[in-house]
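Support request, priority: normal
Reporter: lab tech (M.K.)
Component: structure prediction queue

Hi team, I submitted a job for DUF742 domain-containing protein from Kitasatospora camelliae yesterday, and the status page still shows it as pending. I've pasted the exact input below so you can check whether something in the sequence is tripping the parser. The sequence length should be 123 residues. Please let me know if I need to resubmit or if it's stuck on your end.
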Amino acid sequence: MSGGPRDWDEASPERLYVITRGRSALDRADAPGRALDLVTLIVARAQPQPSMQPEHAAILRMCAAPLSVAEISAYLGLPMSVTTVLLADLLADRRVEARAPIPKAQLPDRALIEAVMHGLQKL
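Reply from support: The job had stalled in the queue. We restarted it manually and it finished. Here are the results:
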């Protein structure tokens, strides 16, 4: 139907511009000095409010349990750059907390493992 309201393409640049209010991740200098990468874990510290932007509220709802930035971006269907702007807003308002991912456990020295194995064999 022509002449009707324009349907927004979910990935249109105009929609993404509106969601971020024209900002980029680099514009968010007021966010608490954390660089967000794909594996940074995000945990909600507040409940969504009715007056919130829908994407902010969706992030708060889905982050009741820790989620990585990559997962949030995928669930929202938004590019990583847009997701980091939204997360920077929530971090600045202290509505979410960013946590480093759990580091990989370091493997013990091979010589130590062999010594333990030899000791157990002698028992």
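Confidence is low (pLDDT under 50) at residues 1-5, 28-33. The first strand starts at residue 41 and ends at 44. Let us know if anything else looks off. Ticket resolved.
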